[in-house]
């Protein structure tokens, strides 16, 4: 089940798709009910002789789709499924032993050796919608009846401001990304205040835009008109392609390890003494940890349904290491609040940060939230935007308000512990505690278990 923010996004995207089809004389038909039953009813009402769909990659999804396919074929229908989500099918890229790759760089090289994925087919030039058989129209549910969008209260205001839905909006964003300051992507993509990344993840996630569309646009050099030097533009294009590669690698993991969202890929992490800390979890969720860089990210997430990648990494590290919360608790919160909540990218990245995943960051790499803030938000602009109660602190203190003197706090209008919390945990002590906990897992850096086969 998608989370609440992703539900809202699906609602908006379906509405935009319906509007685009209506402009061309058609409409989107939505049905709700058990897949098999709805499909059978649809076939009976329309007299369809073929069924076509886009492939899904989760374990249960694949099993269900395979059963559906076999059943329909037995009845003489033509059934075809297509890759609309990925650049490379996960079962086609294996190591020399015929097993899934465990390391991103080797896997990505193998993908590149396989050649460019086929470019996407272009949209039809002529549309020929026929009138809807009455039986089929009767099966349709109005979009509002699906209950995807919040009603009372309508908490989606901030999301609506941030994310215009639909393919046209996605293409507009892509054009802006390629033309604005594309050459800066490679060097500035880690700075959360600079908006140097594409912000296309919500569109990719819901299928309003495909990875193959993006890849083909890169290959066609659609960014060539952007300002700056060709060398820097090429470096940005290479970096952007490899980020699409990371998305792809997450799907690769979801395919080969269907338990990705539930089980540690490194079983040694099963012995990790995660803490049950409802207070800490709540403070983290609300952006009240007392570490401004983390709190800015968590509030950006709550307000817009999105968080910058660098801050996602630091916030996830804080949850799993400083607070020693099970990565699944953080993953669940992201799942519920991200507009781009993705069944592959979300758990794979949480496992990557926690250290329990394949090719993961080593557990002992514990981000210092102050240094991360100072490095990636040196002027404090990002913190000032999302944690306005600290806005008047000088740059030197913006990432560590507890170091301010009483006069400095007064001058900035901050009452620590009243307007903004003291740090929930002290960095050094939390770091020590995390390393001790990690040591208890023994050989936690062991090889990931093979949970399923391709
Ligand atoms: C703890 C954690 C949870 C995450 N959960 C999600 C999630 O649920 N959905 C999601 O789409 N991304 C997730 N990410 C990955 C990443 O943060 C977002 O994809 C990225 O911030 C989207 O912003 P963008 O489109 O501007 O990225 P850009 O830098 O413009 O990158 C282009 C595209 O590449 C892909 N991409 C970039 N980085 C990653 C990555 N590390 N992993 C997978 N794909 C990547 C995305 O599809 C992105 O749209 C998560 C990262 C972390 C650390």
From TrEMBL:
Marked site positions, Electron transfer via tryptophanyl radical: 274, 327, 350
Reaction(s) this enzyme catalyzes, per UniProt: cyclobutadipyrimidine (in DNA) = 2 pyrimidine residues (in DNA)
Cofactor note: Binds 1 FAD per subunit.
GO biological process, one term: photoreactive repair
Superkingdom of origin organism: Bacteria
Domain (Photolyase/cryptochrome alpha/beta): residue spans on this chain: 1-87
Residues involved in FAD binding: 185, 197-201, 240, 340-342
Cofactors that this protein relies on: (6R)-5,10-methylene-5,6,7,8-tetrahydrofolate; FAD
GO MF entry, a single one: deoxyribodipyrimidine photo-lyase activity
UniProt keyword list: Chromophore, FAD, Flavoprotein, Lyase
EC number: 4.1.99.3
Family: Belongs to the DNA photolyase family.
Name recorded for this polypeptide: Deoxyribodipyrimidine photo-lyase
Organism for this UniProt entry: Paraburkholderia caffeinitolerans
Phylogenetic placement of the source organism: Bacteria, Pseudomonadati, Pseudomonadota, Betaproteobacteria, Burkholderiales
Gene this chain is encoded by: phrA
């Amino acid at each position: 089940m998608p989370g609440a923010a992703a539900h809202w996004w699906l609602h908006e995207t379906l509405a935009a798709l319906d509007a685009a089809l209506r402009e061309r004389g058609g409409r989107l038909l939505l049905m709700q009910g058990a897949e098999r039953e709805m499909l059978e009813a649809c076939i009976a009402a329309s007299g369809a002789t073929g069924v076509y769909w886009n492939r899904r990659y989760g374990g249960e999804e694949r099993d269900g789709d395979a059963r559906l396919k076999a059943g329909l074929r037995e009845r003489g229908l033509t059934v075809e499924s297509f890759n609309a989500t990925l650049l490379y099918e996960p079962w086609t890229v294996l190591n020399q032993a015929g097993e899934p790759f465990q390391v991103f760089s080797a896997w990505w090289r193998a993908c590149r050796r396989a050649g460019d994925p086929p470019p996407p087919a272009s949209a039809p030039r002529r549309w020929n919608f026929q009138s809807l058989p009455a039986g089929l129209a009767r099966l349709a549910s109005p979009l509002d009846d699906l209950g995807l969008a919040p009603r009372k209260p309508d908490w989606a205001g901030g999301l609506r401001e941030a994310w215009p839905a639909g393919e046209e909006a996605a293409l507009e964003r892509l054009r802006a990304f390629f033309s604005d300051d594309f050459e800066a992507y490679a060097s500035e993509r880690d700075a959360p205040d600079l908006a140097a990344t594409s912000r296309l993840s919500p569109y990719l996630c819901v299928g309003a835009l495909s990875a193959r569309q993006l890849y083909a646009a890169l290959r066609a050099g659609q960014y060539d008109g952007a300002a700056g030097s060709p060398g820097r533009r090429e470096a940005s294009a290479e970096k952007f392609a490899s980020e699409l590669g990371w998305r792809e690698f997450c799907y690769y993991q979801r395919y080969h390890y269907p338990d990705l969202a539930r089980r540690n890929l490194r079983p040694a992490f099963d012995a990790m003494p995660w803490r049950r800390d409802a207070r800490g979890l709540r403070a983290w969720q609300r952006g009240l940890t007392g570490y401004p860089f983390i709190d800015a990210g968590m509030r950006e997430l709550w307000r817009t349904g999105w968080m910058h990648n660098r801050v996602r990494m630091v916030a996830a590290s804080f949850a799993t290491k400083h607070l020693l919360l099970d990565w699944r608790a953080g993953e669940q919160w992201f799942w519920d609040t991200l507009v781009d909540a993705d069944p592959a990218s979300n758990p794979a990245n949480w496992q990557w940060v926690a250290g329990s995943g394949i090719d993961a960051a080593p557990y002992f790499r514990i981000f210092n939230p102050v240094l991360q803030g100072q490095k990636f938000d040196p002027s404090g602009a990002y913190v000032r935007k999302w944690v306005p109660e600290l806005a008047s602190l000088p740059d030197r203190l913006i990432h560590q308000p507890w170091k301010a003197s009483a006069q400095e706090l007064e001058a900035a209008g901050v009452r620590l512990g009243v307007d903004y919390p003291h740090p929930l945990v002290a960095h050094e002590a939390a770091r020590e505690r995390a390393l001790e906990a990690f040591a208890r897992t023994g050989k936690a850096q062991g090889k990931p278990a093979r949970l399923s086969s391709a």
